[in-house]
Design a protein that fits this description.
Blueprint: H1 22-53, H2 62-83, H3 92-100, H4 102-137, E1 140-143, E2 147-150, H5 152-189
Antiparallel strand pairs: 1-2
Length: 197
């Protein structure tokens, strides 16, 4: 169940493949970097499998690289996925409300986006001290003499991805709030018609 039902209403910030806004270009670039990373990771894993079973010579550190890469790829692509309304979510309630009671549905969706932005801020608040510690103390993943991977680049990617995801959540919330208020004004401007039988 994907977030598609609210696309039936026009959105001021609705993104497309030709998004020319600064935020749209940044999120698209981050997503493209994540896609290139996926391709590189596939080549690395296949090369490791071939080297392990054909030449009995596996590539050192592939499990560590994969574990860090998955996290990095996810956070690189979060903001663009959200911008395109492709986050996986259950929209049974919100979707029906937007169709039957658009103002209530948009208000509830605005709350959903504000909660998402709040969670993004929590991630930023929690990860930044860890990033600073990893940067200043040189923490790493792996074993000395085998492979050493610094952890600060991944933590930096988490910060960047969370930052732009938070901004996008706020923009979606603002869009929904504007839409709900516009519907409220239009409802107030439309006089009720009463039919006496």
């Amino acid at each position: 169940m994907t977030d598609t039902s609210h696309d039936e209403e026009p959105r001021a910030d609705k993104s497309s493949a030709r998004d020319t806004s600064l935020l749209g270009r940044i999120t698209a670039f981050l997503s493209a970097a994540g896609t290139v990373w996926i391709l590189a990771l596939m080549l690395l894993i296949n090369s490791d499998v071939i080297g392990r079973f054909v030449f009995n010579s596996p590539i050192v550190g592939v499990p560590e690289i994969v574990s860090l890469s998955i996290v990095g790829i996810v956070f690189l692509q979060l903001s663009h996925t959200l911008r395109l309304h492709r986050f996986i979510r259950s929209d049974v309630l919100v979707g029906r409300l937007i169709k039957s009671r658009p103002r209530v549905g948009r208000a509830l969706q605005c709350l959903h986006h504000l909660i998402g932005a709040g969670l993004g801020l929590v991630i930023l608040w929690y990860v930044f001290p860890k990033f600073y510690e990893a940067w200043s103390e040189g923490t790493y993943l792996g074993d000395i003499g085998r492979i050493i991977l610094p952890t600060w680049p991944i933590l930096l990617i988490i910060l960047i991805g969370s930052f732009f995801m938070t901004i996008q959540f706020f923009l979606h919330a603002l869009d929904d709030a504007k839409f709900a208020m516009a519907l409220q004004r239009s409802d107030a401007a439309t006089p009720e018609t009463r039919v006496d039988l």
